What we know:
The complex is a heterodimer of chains A (311) and B (321). Chain A has 311 residues and is α/β, with parallel strands linked by helices. Chain A has helices at 17-30, 43-52, 59-71, 94-106, 127-137, 142-171, 184-187, 194-202, 215-225, 232-244, 260-272, 290-306, and strands at 9-11, 35-37, 77-79, 82-85, 113-115, 118-120, 177-181, 206-209, 250-256, 278-283. In chain A, α2 (43-52) packs across α3, α5 (127-137) crosses α6 and α9 (215-225) crosses α10 (232-244). The longest helix of chain A has 30 residues, at 142-171. Chain A is globular. Chain B folds into three domains: 4-92 and 252-275, 2-Layer Sandwich (Nucleotidyltransferase, domain 5); 100-244, Nucleotidyltransferase, domain 5 (2-Layer Sandwich), CATH 3.30.420; 278-320. A five-stranded mixed sheet of chain B has the order 3-2-1-4-5. Classes of the chains: A alpha/beta (311), B alpha/beta (321).
Amino acid sequence: MDGEKMPAIGIPRAMLYYRYGALWEHFFQSLGLSTVLSPPGSRGILEAGTRLAPDESCLSLKMFMGHVDALVGRCERIFIPRYSNYGYTEFFCTRYEGIYDQARNIFRSSGQRFITCNIDVQNGSPEAKAFEKLGVELGFSPRQSRHAWHEAARALEQQQKTAEHIQKELAGKPGMKVLVAGHSYVLSDPYLGRPILDYLESAGAVSLRADALEPETARKACARFSPTCRWITSEEIVGGVLLWKDRVDGIILVSAFPCGPDSMTNELLIRRLKGKPILTLVLDTQSGMAGVETRIESFLDIIRFQKGEMV
Amino acid sequence: MNTGNAFLGIDVGSISTKAVIIDEGNAILAQEYIWTEGNPIGAVKKLLGLLEKQLDRETWQIVGVGATGSARRLVGSIVGATVVKNEITAHAVGTTTFHPDVRTILEIGGQDSKIILVENGIAVDYAMNTLCAAGTGAFLSSQARRLGIEVEEMGQYALQSAHPTMIAARCTVFAESDLVHKIQMGHPREDIIAGVCRAVASNYINNVGKGKKICSPVVFQGGVSKNIGVVRAFEDLLRCPVIVDENGHLMGAMGAAILARRSLKRTHFDFSVENMEFVTRERNCGGCSNNCEIICVYRNGTLIDFWGNRCEKGALRADKA
């Protein structure tokens, strides 16, 4: 080593990072630990991840392993939390629960150290407790750790409020509006979902996002629609669709192949939401955007036809 | 002398390339249908040669050109199209012009399939197959080959069957192994062929048509609509007549020509592109780890268009190509 200290904590910019990233970063930073993020998602990262991840896993998990790969050897510990459940009826997709152990196994010969925490209310470990334990494991007192958690939770809440506020302003804009619904880590990824949002913008449509909403509000809306929806992140997306749908001209459901939860909830939305054009886009490792562009272009034409505009 | 304005529409699909020239009243002045044979540029040049012979160029001047189909971008830049539109919109516009009362358009092509729902002459909803090409023309061609007949003959064979064999239709790969199994079990050939046609129709209704209310009148087009076996299968499953227009294969090109007519953009198209040399090259950008595949199109050695780059870096690289 050249004597320069490596950042203490590496965070893969993938999966739940796009949902809870603000919480994690603020937690470590308020403990005075330096953090490093993996580079933005790209084809190179996806290719690396595809080589590393089990070949039948979802596109997002492949992308995730590529991000872990980019951090190996660049930080003291890579942080991958295990998100399991928020209680007896609220679950996370098993991917989020398993990725820490999968990553440790995939990179077992790299010498890289990892660190995790368990968000598992069923087994007596809610978020606050999990992060307190994490802080203690990193050498801080329980009090310091609790303080850092409170700071971090506030930061996340603030971020979600801002996102919702921006969204409300967008919803008030004139012109054609399209609601884009999908997991945050698909939509926000510069390689996967961003091109869709960029394409919509270049085609003159305002895109709103189903995931830009305070999670509590969204989950409540989903509970009225489908009381048995199993997955927390899916509840948030479905709730977002329900709360924004009347302010848009069409809905695009974006899913990364083969996402189990999406295959249930997208089907549910298609069957139950009537009167709004809905387009489903399934992303896989194809590198061309042509198929996706054809579908979005014709979708926007359908909306224009409906509005009586000349195409 | 040139008196009338005419509009050219070109539809370049994976299997076939279609073109029409229409006048201001949508009357067809020239039309042609040839195989793409994996060479969209060659096909378009050949097609233009054939159209040129049909058109009375003393009377008509082409002032608008529309391109559609999966090679629309490439062909659009070669012929200098005034309108480049996706095939769903083009089909919707073409079909509603000739069948103003249509409610449902079924379309099965060589590589994709789509459904367009129409209300009062306006397309209101559509669906397209996802990335999987199950149950399209490509599936029928490969099954015909397996059964040792021409794909064009399938329909006639299917009509002779009284008891179509049940073939699993969910996935092409499974359908194929199911089909082989039924052949080996001794099912008569015409029953199997009728079963394949039925599988295409039910696969379509269960996938592309899922959750869509299919109302009559139904118009069926795309290459597979030439297969009478599939037409009968649709009629059985939907319990309503299915209209196959004799110009059904031209609807995409018609739509493109109509869109060119409606657009305000005008050009002065002559058939000179037939004699120009077009070359495409693929370049890997390498500007970042996305390593975009950029397609560059050259006319007589000069770069005229490029695409495939996700950012401006790629545009700079294409310029330097």
